[in-house]
Each structure stands twice: as structure tokens, then as C-alpha cells.
Design goal:
alpha+beta; 3 strands; flat
């Protein structure tokens, strides 16, 4: 398993700017709750799933098998 940044530099730049604006909370989520702090709970759960391969919700990170 490997976690990498999205290869699209524009997406990475946009999401990182959003993270700065929100204080580290996923810019794709409205609620600023602990489970939405980057790296969000949703993606951490997906990382634990050995069958999951893909991007996190905001497209910043990619998990490969």
C-alpha cells in the first residue's frame, strides 16, 4: 500500500489553498469537526480497507494497493 499526492499539480495546489483557508479541515466538507480534519476520517477508513484503491474525497491523496 502506498499513499501519494494527486499527480495533477493544479488540484494539489487548489486543495492545499483550501486547507489553509479552513485551518486544515477538508475544504470539500462543510462541518469543521475532528473527523473532517485532513487526512479525514473517511479516507483513513478507506486506507484500512485492503480492497480500496483510489482518491480521497477532495482528490488530494491517492491510495494504491
Amino acid at each position: 500500500m502506498e499513499i501519494t499526492l494527486n499527480p495533477d499539480e493544479n488540484i494539489v495546489k487548489t486543495v492545499k489553498e483550501g486547507l489553509k483557508r479552513t485551518g486544515g479541515y477538508c475544504p470539500c466538507k462543510r462541518a469543521h469537526t475532528p473527523e473532517n480534519k485532513c487526512m479525514c476520517e473517511e479516507f483513513r477508513a478507506q486506507i484500512k480497507d485492503p480492497e480500496f484503491e483510489g482518491f480521497c474525497h477532495c482528490m488530494l491523496y491517492y491510495k494504491s494497493k
